[in-house]
Amino acid sequence: MCGIVGFTGHVDAKDILLDGLKRLEYRGYDSAGIAVEDDSRINVIRRVGKVSELVSSVGENDCLGGCGIGHTRWATHGAPSERNAHPHTSCAEDIAVVHNGIIENYLELREVLEGRGHTFTSDTDTEVAAHLIEEAYKGDLLDAVRSAASQMIGAYGLAVMCIHEPGKIVVTRKDSPIVLGQGEKGAYVASDIIALIDATRDVVVLEDNEFAVMTPDSIEYYDRIGNAFEPEITHIDWDVDVAEKGGYPDFMLKEIHEQPRVVRDTLAGRMSGNEIVIDELTLSRKELNYVDRVYIIGCGTSYHAGLIAKNLIEAWARIPTEVEVASEFRYRNPIITPTTMVVAVSQSGETADTLAAIRDARVKGAKVFGITNVLGSPVARESDGVIYTKANKEIAVASTKSFIGQVVSLTLLAMLLGRVKGKLTLPQTRMLFSELADTAEQIEYILQDTSAIDEAAKYFEGRTSALYIGRGLGEATCYEGALKLKEISYIHAEAYAAGEMKHGPIALLEDGFPIVAVATKSPTYDKTISNLAESKTRGATIIAIATEGDEEIKKVADYVIYIPRVRDSFMPITASVPLQLLARSVAVARGCDVDQPRNLAKSVTVE
Ligand code: M6R
């Protein structure tokens, strides 16, 4: 939530900041701003709306100077407006601050600061940081930022500049990502590697309560008590083109098309000597054998990946598995014993609820394993072991390829647990692995011809509501399909177990009501068909995801989207692809911005 950038160097900062903000826009897009110092003052330009609004407001002769900071916002405290957009400045306008996170004690701090004569010009929590730094400033910006940070409770990634120390940016963080790097033109900071990868591939991931002082030719690092240290350098080896659409009209479609590669990369090196290998688990096979309960926690799409995994772990390893929304898990008192395994799933690795649940589970004595897509993210750092999904940077706010990476990773975990528990034989495991690998080709096949999906999407014109139904893994798949439709097309969509229709939702049906059904060949196929017939009788229009060759489905379905025959256990991987494409087609037809849906942000770092 919110993206921050900063640059100090030997060329003008303005374009570097604006380019960085464009790349960070997935983190929030309700307002944006930059601050650049010239010889005598800090020039601030802020605009409501997307970064493009800011870009078109910044004239050629505005904001000239080699040191600046920028921000793209997802509003928490204070409505999206120009006065609430960052950067925020001190009373004397000699200090400017951009912030990602939430300063929880801002009201108390604001009261104290107002009592000392500070005048606030926004409703944000962030502005207290500018005034706290102003209050503490005695000629050393680092000292002042350290003093301010020691008074703030909450989460923050902060970049601060001060006109009295030209060319300097001071940075710190707590529970909010910050990466830094030195390039040829100067020093860079951002919330995400993607904003500085054009300048350098060697970056430093700042840790909580650490500080960095950037000047054009160097970045110095200090710990919380002021000792300088040499940071660990992380080399980034993924391609710069992840930040480009590569000929696709939007990132979402590009990322959907990357899914075969994600399957292959996630499986690479995971089978050795016919055994599943997940070294990152940091538990011996003996310890894994003791696991008698699994909790999978996550939010949104990551939670849905967990729903799929529950079915597989219980089927193959016979370990009771519970899947919980992270925001609920942390406020319950779940039964955790030394033999409980907690798996935390998070694409971004910085979702506040998931992180809090991880901390809580560890305090209660559980071993926590993270499944995340982001190198060095808080989920990665705070887990006992981390499995990286190989999706690479995901930019569209609606998760697609990272979901496939999560499901494949969790499927491997289920197979490993099945082996360790002696429930899966070697030949069974080999066969499962090989069929899992085949899903890459099956997705490619689905992506070759999407005409049936586009045809079904037209049916949603003028519709305001839809139900997604399925049984078993079909039900789990429907939750993700329905989320995709609602988040990018704004059509209300709910997922139900098909067998539940007659216990309530069937009352919603009237002529033409759209039902999307996952009705692939599975042990419960016949039951699903009966449920669809009951709905059709009551006027529903059925859009079915079905198995190639299934002619019977045409008796109940108005639209059929075929996918290749696949073992039911792996069906969610392939069936999710047409559901993603369906949601996207509907959203595009409705003129929605599929990459940046309203009110959402890619990383949810607030509770
Ligand atoms: O980064 P995370 O996986 O922890 O994010 C969890 C959810 O916020 C995320 O999956 C969200 O539901 C997406 N918009 C889904 O497309």
Describe this structure in words.
This protein has 607 residues and is α/β, with parallel strands linked by helices. It has 3 domains: 3-237, Aminohydrolase, N-terminal nucleophile (Ntn) domain (Glutamine Phosphoribosylpyrophosphate, subunit 1, domain 1, 4-Layer Sandwich), CATH 3.60.20.10; 244-444, 3-Layer(aba) Sandwich (Rossmann fold); 451-589, 3-Layer(aba) Sandwich (Rossmann fold), CATH 3.40.50. The chain contains 18 helices and 27 strands. The chain has an 8-stranded antiparallel beta sheet, covered by helices on one side. A 7-stranded antiparallel beta sheet has the order 5-6-7-8-12-13-14. The longest helix has 23 residues, at 426-448. The model has no long low-confidence stretch (mean pLDDT 94). 5-amino-5-deoxy-1-O-phosphono-D-mannitol binds at residues 299-302, 346-348, 351, 354, 397-399, 487, 600, 603-604.
Which ligands accompany this protein?
5-amino-5-deoxy-1-O-phosphono-D-mannitol
Helix content: 25-40%
CATH superfamily of the largest domain: Aminohydrolase, N-terminal nucleophile (Ntn) domain
The chain-level mean pLDDT equals 94
The rounded Rg comes to 25 Å
The gross shape turns out to be globular
Largest sheet: 8 strands, antiparallel
